[in-house]
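I'm curious: can you give me some protein's one-letter sequence along with its backbone structure tokens because I've never seen that pairing?
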Amino acid sequence: MTSSIENPLPSARPQKLIVAIALAVFTGGAVALSTYGWRQSGLFLIGGLLGVSLYHSRFGFSSAYRKLLVNRDVRGIYAQLLMLAIATIIFAPVLAAGSIFGQEVDGAIAPVGLQGAIGAFLFGIGMQLGGGCACGTLYTIGSGSYTMLITLFTFCIGAFWGSLTRDIWPKLPQTSPIVLGETLGWVGAVTLQLGLFILIAGLLWWWSQSNQNQPQTESDKSPIFPHPGEILSGPWPLFTGAIALAILNWLTLVISGNPWRITWGFALWSAKIATILGWNPDSSPFWEGMSFSDIVFTDVSSVMNIGIILGALLAAAAAGNLVAKTQISPSLVIATIIGGLMMGYGAFLAFGCNVSVFFSGIASTSLHGWIWILAALCGTGVGIRLRSLLQLSN
């Protein structure tokens, strides 16, 4: 039996109070981070905007894959294809130049091999059991889904565990990073990827037509952009979220020199806590020699992760929808713990999660991003079956 508890705030006044508090915390955080440089403040604000965009558009990765495989509902995948297409186009000139505004830039690239495929497969299973992907975990926590705190906690542990055992995996077969922009030229690589996005969209449309039971909702007829009155309060059309995420990832690349990533921040949080509990980083080949002083505020992914949570909190409160939601059942807790561990460990094996490998990797024209999504979808299929065995709804 599942016990579901929802505690909505009783009136508009508390919602407004939370908006004011969230704005104060957000502003204070940006000001405090300025002591570490303007880039940290800027990236914190970008993280907040990512949280707002994810919440208002309800942009999902794990849910989109589940709807695709269970119901042949392709709308979430169309949005991801649009996001990837825009990101590919705007990333390419910057990556081809190697710098912008004096800031050197590097794409999200990694080796192509069995290690990454295994990690993505584990991640695909984990995000179905854990109830969300990397960015989904953060923004749903911000919007009041506190069951996802279990996913976050175990995700962090899994990532840290992956860092401690990372020396085992490079022995598996793998190639050097393959970047299509460098291999085919950037014009050729962008053209190829855009063609693949169009082909995939066409194949998905054809495949979805055989599903007579696909749900039809108002979102099917919604415009690409929200009504001006809904920009702050939401909801946004799914494609608006796709456009916003692509632009914000590009801004992350321009300001930090690297695309958006999430899992590294989780691993750092775990390692920092482990040092407080007495763990010696020099006992691990991966962490040896690393300083953890102020790491929570000096690391880009850590700062942006915090920003995403606060941004989603602010968006939910501004929309008047901030609701504390807690679902409790033995099967859900077991699934969440296992899912979080698998996501964390799998992400570390695969050189990142759905954001840093799939989104940022493909936008960087790195082949490992394409391998990731194929393996993750296979894992998603397994995860869906496991959800049924645990009597979790699909």
Observations:
- Residues 75-97 form the longest helix (23 residues).
- The chain is about 65% helix and 5% strand.
